[in-house]
From TrEMBL, chains A, B:
CDD domains (UniProt xref): NPD_like
Pfam families reported in the protein's UniProt record: NMO
Top-level taxon of the source organism: Bacteria
Taxonomic source organism: Tsuneonella litorea
InterPro entries for this protein: Aldolase_TIM (IPR013785), NMO (IPR004136)
GO MF term set: nitronate monooxygenase activity
UniProtKB keywords: Flavoprotein, FMN, Monooxygenase, Oxidoreductase
Protein's UniProt name: Nitronate monooxygenase
């Protein structure tokens, strides 16, 4: 396929696969799609290692990196210097609430949940550090979420010929990103897994494409949110997108970082089984709904914490949930959750990433032919 | 165009236009689309009059009627014999809350809001009475929402060769409808105006199409929710739908029942300006967000009432809001609202219904060609 997005990124088929797992990134890029490594979970040293692995395995196919440099910081958090200061600032009742909830499901009944201190959180300084690592590798795209891409990212992208992409959930944000000089807008609907807005992909894509055009920008748009099949990708390209940005579908591959327990839950889940909740990262993010979300979002809980504090409580708790589930605690399986979009209702089995790309290609052609055929 | 939906209904172009206004219905059908009159607001006598008018003006083009026969009734309401009994059962503080809210916006400061007593509400008996009127006219489609179409509707549709359609917001509901013998499934995403579920149109369409196919049903699916352009209609047909079911877009026509004040708000609104709220009908329905919704959905209000009680409070209040806005009360304009989907963000002007059909046709062809062209 040949369109501006393909030319900007080197993608043969404009199916962008966001994954935290290097194996998915390499497999998708080698199959003609475009893998994008989500870097936020890694330290700079870890990211260096992951990207070196991809460079050695991707056979020269183009790939990208996604970092999160949040544009705004909750004022409650801004003055805290580092994760140790942040951990110290968290009222102990949050950790107690998490520990009590886990205990109700038979997980580590006599242990508290200590807030994460050592690992990277979603903060501007961490995002910038990861960006610097990414630019040392032959990436073809760098993406940013949670606000305007920082000027350093845009300048460095232009200098190196690396396309800069930005995720947005509203028309106004797309216009601000285009004005800032971003090369590709990823317009993500409210059905998406992870951080998302409220406007659906089907409405957002034509709205963003039209708004950019009217403002005189030719910035191409990728459609994100709910896309699990080549038919949906074709649909969004009929509506004006130049490709698809996907995430959840790759969790149902054996290569992904998702646990086997979570993959089984994906196959079983209906599209109605997700929830947009602040209870994992502190910002609204769509995920598989469990009693965790009901407890934190309910009226008897302590409420949620701002980013990144909420993650400092939730991530150690979810790590314990996963360990307990893996060890055979059936109750713990009930709590297993992860970021996933409404498209989870379309997942029927776990398939290798390469097979997913192939299915997208076939479904895409089928959908385009079906639509053309309807013209008679 | 020729597909099963076109053959079932006689539509030339499978663009279904739901409207409470007979002028829209006739204009769309005459332009090659398919108008569907929303009958719920009418008494049986009024509906008879509306349909006679359509018969006299539609020039033989096919049209349909949409009734609401709710499958389940809130147990708090089930025992009440009629609207007078229902009105008597509403705690006076609901009417007081509505009157206070209106007074804050300079509307009828010294008057209470008397619950509606005389008009039809959304109840099974009212829905059945309207259905009987509809079948006395040369309709080509009868649609039902809020649950399984009643057996009488399906039997009478089959006897008369009238296609029976049912609106659903979830895969499981689509399967139940197909099993009940419905001819056309209207799968409506959570971005839709009016009563809606939570799963987005882009996810729901392939999910419903696939589920019906796997269960051995060949029931065609219309896509509803967020569709305001022919590009989106084409997108959903690429994704497996056989046509589009639309509503909000017709409110921005001069023929529609919407007030001028509301039409102006539609043109100004962004896709993020809607809310899914129980505060108008008692069931979750998407509408333009105003202080009305914040007040009723907020924590200081009395909560919302079940259907049809909520509408017995809200409809007289909204009628006063409209009258005050029309009389020049600028504050009242702030409260003007109506059922509308997220697609409101795509409305740029008020155009005749015939011109909207024509735009859909052109955009549809353009989108299908664009997608086919991407195959190279």
């Amino acid at each position: 396929m040949d369109n501006p997005v393909c030319r900007l990124t080197g993608a043969e088929f404009p199916l962008f696969a966001f994954s935290h797992c290097r194996d998915v990134v390499a497999a998708v890029s080698k199959a003609g799609g475009f893998g994008v490594l989500g870097a936020t979970r890694f330290s700079p040293d870890q990211l260096e290692e992951e990207l070196a692995w991809i460079d050695a395995h991707v056979e020269g196919a183009p790939y990208g990196v996604d970092v999160i440099v949040p544009e705004t910081i909750d004022p409650r958090v801004a003055a805290m210097a580092d994760n140790a200061a942040r951990a110290a600032a968290i009222d102990p009742r949050y950790a107690e609430f998490a520990a009590d909830l886990l205990a109700q499901y038979g997980i580590d009944a006599n242990r508290t949940v200590a807030p994460l201190r050592e690992r990277m959180g979603i903060t501007p300084e961490n995002g910038m550090a990861l960006m610097e690592v990414a630019f040392r590798h032959p990436i073809r795209l760098i993406a940013n979420a949670l606000g305007i891409a920082p000027p350093e990212m845009i300048a460095e992208g232009k200098r190196r010929g690396v396309a800069v992409a930005a995720l947005v959930g509203a028309k106004e944000h797309a216009l601000r990103q285009a004005e800032a000089g971003v090369d590709i807008i990823v317009a993500q609907g409210g059905e998406a897994g992870g951080h998302c807005g409220e406007v659906s992909t089907l409405v957002l894509i034509p709205e963003v494409v039209r708004a950019l055009g009217k403002a005189g920008y030719d910035t191409p748009v990728l459609a994100a949110g709910g896309i699990m099949t080549g038919g949906q990708m074709a649909a969004m390209m009929a509506a004006g997108a130049q490709g698809a940005w996907t995430g959840s579908v790759w969790l149902a591959t054996p290569e992904s970082e998702a646990s086997e327990a979570f993959r089984q839950k994906m196959v079983a889940a209906r599209s109605r089984d997700t929830v947009r909740s602040r209870s994992r990262t502190g910002k609204p993010a769509r995920q598989l709904r469990t009693a965790w979300h009901e407890a934190w979002d309910g009226e008897t809980g302590p409420g949620t914490l701002p980013m990144p504090l909420m993650g400092m409580i939730s991530e150690p708790a979810f790590a314990r949930i996963e360990r307990a589930a893996e060890a055979g605690n059936a109750q713990a399986r009930d709590l297993v959750s992860y970021f996933v979009g409404q498209g989870v209702g379309l997942v029927e089995d776990v398939r290798p990433a390469r097979a997913v790309v192939q299915a997208f290609r076939e479904e895409f052609v089928e959908a385009a032919m079906r639509l053309a055929g309807s013209l008679g």
